[in-house]
Amino acid sequence: MAKQSLTNIKEKFLILKAIEPHALELAYIRSQLVDMLYIEVDNTFIISCSRSFKDSFPRKLRDFEVNFISIYANNKTGAAVESSGINDADQSNLEHIIRSGKS
């Protein structure tokens, strides 16, 4: 069996969870990802992306009034979390988990 290489795994990716989305909201998200590498499972998207996409995409989702949680992971610089439509306590807990690496 040939040895598999991990060089194709991206160092930067975004995990997006659309919260109770309507079909039109999911279509909008997919339309923004047309030229990107992503996987979608049960309204959760794992997107290979750049930091500039991570910065601009949540604004587009808020403008379209999509409720979401997004977590950006970067193997070199760490992670960030953004959301819309969740309460402040949940947002704070997500930030704590992402920054400390603990639950």
Written description of the protein model:
The protein is α+β, with helices and mostly antiparallel strands. The chain has a single domain, classed as 2-Layer Sandwich (Alpha-Beta Plaits), CATH 3.30.70. It contains 3 helices and 5 strands, in the order E-H-E-E-H-E-E-H. A hairpin with a 3-residue loop joins strand 4 (68-74) and strand 5 (78-84). The chain is globular and about 35 Å long. It starts with 11 loop residues before the first strand and ends with a helix. The model is unreliable at 1-9 (pLDDT under 50).
User: What is the average per-residue confidence, as pLDDT, rounded to a whole number?
Assistant: 84
The CATH topology label is Alpha-Beta Plaits
**What is the number of independent domains?**
1
Tell me the major beta sheet. 5 strands, antiparallel
**Ends apart, CA distance between termini:** 38 Å
- Helix residue percentage: 25-40%
> β content, as a range?
25-35%
Per CATH, the architecture is 2-Layer Sandwich
| Molecular shape | globular
CA radius of gyration: 15 Å
- Per CATH, the class reads Alpha Beta
The assigned structural class equals alpha+beta
